[in-house]
Amino acid sequence: MVSQRVHVGFVVLVASSLAFASARPSAQPQNPATVLVGGTVIDGNGGPPIADAVVIVSGSRIQAVGPRSAVKIPTGATQIDARGRWILPGLIDTNVHLSLYGGQNDRYESLVRYQPRQNEIVLEAAQIDLSYGVTTVRDSYGALVPLAHVRDQIARGEKTGTRILAAGNILGWSGPYSFSFSRVMGQLTLFQEQMNDFIAQGGGEELMTMTPAELRVAIDKYIDKGPDFLKFGGTSHFSEPTFIGFSPEQQRVIVEEAHRRNRAAETHSTTIEGLRVSIAAGIDGIQHPELLDGREMPDDLITTIRDRGLVCSMLASTITGPAWTRHLKAKEEAEKKRIETEKEAARGLKHEKTTAEQRKEDADSGAGLEARRRNAQKLIRGGCTVTPGTDSYWAAAPELTRTPKPTEQDHGIGTIMAIEGLVELGMTSSQTIVAATKNGAIASRGLKDFGTIEPGKLADLVVLTADPLADIKNLRKVSAVFKEGRSVDRGRLPELRVLSVAPAAPGTK
Ligand SMILES: [Zn+2]
Questions:
Q1: pLDDT at 190 over 90
Q2: Which whole-number Å values give the CA distances from 152 to 132, 162, 292, 443, 447, in the listed order?
Q3: Taking the domains of the chain in order of start, what are their residue ranges?
Q4: Which pLDDT belongs to residue 221?
């Protein structure tokens, strides 16, 4: 019997002639199974955990799971001691942005410098995600060409990274230098115009003007470019004022074409009535449903969202944790400033507060963020199908900026913070894990292949050294990650840093 320590931090009790790390996906079905023995399995379905469990992985898939007493370990299997470990399905983030899509000022400069390196940048983000145990992500806006390229490389096993599902453009909008995406107007540079087209990929602002028949053709053409799902601009981006974009008939066409080609359709609709139109069109999911221009989500809409099983992909890390703490501090300061300003103003002629003044006051005090948080809590209380999203994105390159963006929208750790945030918003740890695994797979239309630990599913697994049901923050205590049955060498990821700065080792923060 050979006893050896493998790099994932387990002790191999019975090693077969093949080293564990060489256990390959289904291409070599003759390989002996790998078995995790004695851990606690949280399978992603929300039931009680299985103590002293056995998980048998054969090739890329889970062959069996259950209590040790009920599962027969095949002879010749590689056994891994998982006592004192918790085993979860791989985590899923339903709203990320892996490609670099630019922006203003230092983000613009970063795009100019790094546009030729989009493939490396997408892979970098995908590898950071995977190192945190995030095995699937849904990219809801970005550069479809590099996203699809890297997605396919990972799917073929040529590269290591999280499983990518990408929407590409938000249909009806354009790139980062457009009115529809960022309210940018006026003279653009050649490069900016090229970047708009690079993001839009023929699914941009021109769609808004099309007849339903024309739109059907355009959507079909867009799907030919290989997005995994469609996201459309049901309303305009950035509020005040927020317009409904596509007509009800146009939205129906987008959803129908998506479904005809076996893809989910989801919307960015941030007004109550805009959201109603999109729901009536038959969408499958809503990105940031909590975001409703500062308005409260009406009860009847919550009921509809729940009853139709619409996936609510919440930007949970932006309304909880450090983001919420920062908000409370900023609100206190804004309140002090408001009192002082009013004192000053009292020396002059009194006037009724203008709409603009009220808006500014609301913006300064973070009223919109508070409304988002209340809506998120309400959707959760209402029993809607919730998933964690982060809007994680690349801001400016580190050497081009003075202020790094907040951690909660960083790749990898941002997703963990979003999951933690769901507990802060009122979910139990168990519900939160379902949200971050099974519900994510529902959003991905992938539940038959991943999202839970069940026989026949891909072996996407996260192994922790502490119980996440006792404290969701234990999700940070990762000891191993498996994707499709293969152990991930987390210490090597990302293999190449283009835009990220090396943090403390993952799982130790
Ligand atoms: Zn959106």
A1: yes
A2: 21, 11, 35, 20, 20
A3: 4-89+450-490, 91-323+362-443
A4: 98
Q: How far is the CA of 312 from the centre of ligand 1 (A)?
A: 12
CATH no. for 91-323+362-443: 3.20.20.140
Instruction: Provide the pLDDT for residue 249.
Output: 98
397 CB neighbour count, 10 Å cutoff: 19
Handedness of CA 203, 205, 208, 214 (dihedral sign): negative
Q: What tokens were used for 380? A: 């959760």
Mean predicted lDDT score pLDDT of the chain: 92
| 377 has a pLDDT exceeding 50 | yes
Count of C-beta atoms within a 10 Å radius of residue 116: 8
What are the tens digits of pLDDT across the range 274-305?
999 999 999 999 999 999 999 999 999 999 99
Is 91-323+362-443 the same fold as 4-89+450-490?
Answer: no
pTM: 0.92
Whole-number Å distance, alpha carbon 250 to ligand 1 midpoint, is 18
Ligand 1 midpoint to CA 287 (Å): 6
* Fold classified for 4-89+450-490: Urease, subunit C; domain 1 (2.30.40)
> For the CA atoms of the chain, what is the radius of gyration?
24
* Residue 268 CA to ligand 1 centre (angstroms): 4
Q: Cα of 371 to ligand 1 centre, how many Å?
A: 17
> Predicted confidence band at 502 (pLDDT cuts at 50, 70, 90)?
confident
Residues, CB within 5 angstroms of ligand 1 (ion): 268, 287
Mean of the pLDDT values across residues 62-81? 95
